[in-house]
Amino acid sequence: MASAADSYPKKILEYMEGFFVSKTVFTACELGVFDVLLGAQRPLSAAEVSQAVGASLDGTQRLLAACTGLELLEAHQDDGQVLYSNTEQASVYLTRSNPSSLFQSIQYNSKTIYLCWHYLTDAVREGTNQYEKAFGVSSKDLFRALYRSDEEMVKFMQMMNSIWNICGRDVVTAFDLSPFKVICDLGGCSGALAKQCTSAYPECTVMIFDLPKVVHTSKKHFMSEADQRISFCQGDFFKDSLPEADLYLLARVLHDWTDDHCIELLSRVYKACKPGGAVLLVEALLREDGSGPLTVQLYSLNMLVQTEGRERTPAQYAALLAAAGFTRVRHRLTGKLYDAVLGHKEP
Ligand SMILES: C[S@@+](CC[C@H](N)C(=O)[O-])C[C@H]1O[C@@H](n2cnc3c(N)ncnc32)[C@H](O)[C@@H]1O
């Protein structure tokens, strides 16, 4: 009988080279391979793609073959020639123009997060984020480091924006939020989740509260005439007074901060919240025993390498909410990337 040590270490080999997959997808997106194939409206040869994206023929042939192996492209034999087209998912999620595109998230992963992960060993050893090493900017003020230029800020906002096109509806409908008419989305960023709220709940209005330059950029780049029920308030949620509301949304905010900062922020929210109101946390939840899901365990490492926060279990969020005064805390899993935790302020 073969011992464990003799058996073929399939998983370990896959993990060792897992980044090959990410980099292949990043590169195909960056070069615009999926956009070119979408625009052509017919299958293209490697020579046609290489010309359109301005890359070597040999490199393009290998890239297209790998994307076919990853089931992002389909290869068709035509008169002894191989022609390529996008799979349905690649057309929707990997092209720039589709409203559900993950292109901006992929770009941010490629250009920013991947560089931070280069220093994961240091992050684990030191227990701190690696912004200074990766980008040469002090990480003392996390969002000053993240928004080190206007261009970086817009990229971050586009990345934050894109995920809610995929699973925003699920998090805002995990609980029935229809009793809450005035919603304040703290750290509401581009406004993608605010839009999901106004679409799911026709009677609510949403005020986005964020740092001044984020508010300015959101108004300029992410809002349209259709977003009549969305308004803005600029400020620092740790320092400035918070607008009064029935429901406060904190989506992917607490995972950026230490427990002490979270309690400080939630206590400010509790003070501003109308009696009978509530707070909805939108986060990726770890199982109570920390045994998964794997994606969330990896997200927690991502928080280590980039922020001062972590991913948490429902009980950990409930403890933070209770420390700030919220009661009747419940959570719902959506089955997608992000889940919801609701806490109440008694009437
Ligand atoms: C990780 S992002 C989450 C964005 C959005 N809620 C989402 O899920 O797409 C955190 C947000 O909090 C905002 N933020 C960070 N520090 C802040 C502060 N002190 N006051 C107000 N907003 C802040 C950031 O600008 C950013 O928009």
UniProtKB/TrEMBL annotation:
One of its GO terms (biological process) is melatonin biosynthetic process. It comes from Betta splendens (Siamese fighting fish). Transmembrane segments: none annotated. SUPFAM superfamilies: S-adenosyl-L-methionine-dependent methyltransferases (SSF53335), Winged helix' DNA-binding domain (SSF46785). This is Acetylserotonin O-methyltransferase. One of its GO terms (molecular function) is protein dimerization activity. Homodimer. The active site is at H255 (proton acceptor). Its EC number is 2.1.1.4. PROSITE patterns: SAM_OMT_II (PS51683). Pathway: Aromatic compound metabolism; melatonin biosynthesis; melatonin from serotonin: step 1/2. It is an enzyme of class 2 (transferase). Catalyzes the transfer of a methyl group onto N-acetylserotonin, producing melatonin (N-acetyl-5-methoxytryptamine). Keywords: Melatonin biosynthesis, Methyltransferase, S-adenosyl-L-methionine, Transferase. PANTHER family: O-METHYLTRANSFERASE CICE (PTHR43712:SF2), PUTATIVE (AFU_ORTHOLOGUE AFUA_4G14580)-RELATED (PTHR43712).
